[in-house]
TrEMBL record:
PANTHER family: METALLOPEPTIDASE M28 FAMILY MEMBER (PTHR12147), PEPTIDASE M28 DOMAIN-CONTAINING PROTEIN (PTHR12147:SF26)
Domain Peptidase M28: 81-159
Lineage: Bacteria, Pseudomonadati, Acidobacteriota, Terriglobia, Terriglobales
GO molecular function: metalloexopeptidase activity
InterPro entries the UniProt entry points to: M28_fam (IPR045175), Peptidase_M28 (IPR007484)
GO biological process terms, semicolon-separated: proteolysis
Gene3D superfamilies linked: Zn peptidases
Protein's name in the database: Peptidase M28 domain-containing protein
Organism: Tunturiibacter gelidiferens
Length: 167
């Protein structure tokens, strides 16, 4: 039996805490099969383009509609930021992000495919019940090259958008 890496356990615990604290969902409603989570984690193999394609497919399979899944082109990056919108009852927005690119050394599973592959699971959990907040799940590109994807994303926000984001 393989053990789950401690950082992965922390990420799962964080997902559980977000669901319970932000939305007061009953614990029995929070369910993504462990095998599904493990399968999503296994798609780390390959270059950043393959990871971007895998993450996009995982978002779609988890229920993010094509109309709510957008690609934000980031200058000097081949891969875009992937943004999955989960509308809530209010425009107050919570951003949950992770990067899918990796450094040349190693596989980059812990930093940060483990986080990116959990984004669709969190989407799936939160989509199962009504929400007050709107959520944006963002797979950032270019983080290993100087936080390019997240920096670009923030710089594109309008003053109106900034007022709806929760801090």
């Amino acid at each position: 039996m393989k053990l789950i890496h401690p950082r992965w356990k922390i990420a799962l615990a964080a997902i559980f805490a977000i669901c319970l604290l932000c939305h007061r969902l009953p614990a029995q409603r929070i369910s993504v099969p462990v095998d599904t989570i493990k399968q999503r984690l296994s798609f780390y193999k390959g270059n950043d383009t393959k990871r971007e394609t895998a993450l996009k497919q995982l978002f779609l399979e988890s229920g993010c509609s094509p109309a709510n899944l957008t690609e934000q082109t980031v200058p000097s990056r081949k891969q875009p930021n992937l943004i999955c919108l989960l509308p809530g009852a209010t425009p107050a927005t919570i951003i949950v992000g992770a990067h899918f690119d990796h450094a040349d050394e190693g596989d980059g599973v812990i930093d940060n495919w483990s986080g990116a592959s959990l984004l669709p699971s969190l989407f799936q959990i939160l989509a199962a019940a009504p929400r007050q907040h709107t959520f944006l799940f963002i797979g950032f590109t270019g983080e290993e090259n100087g936080l390019l994807g997240s920096d670009f994303y923030v710089k594109q926000l309008s003053p109106e958008q900034l007022t709806t984001y929760k801090q």
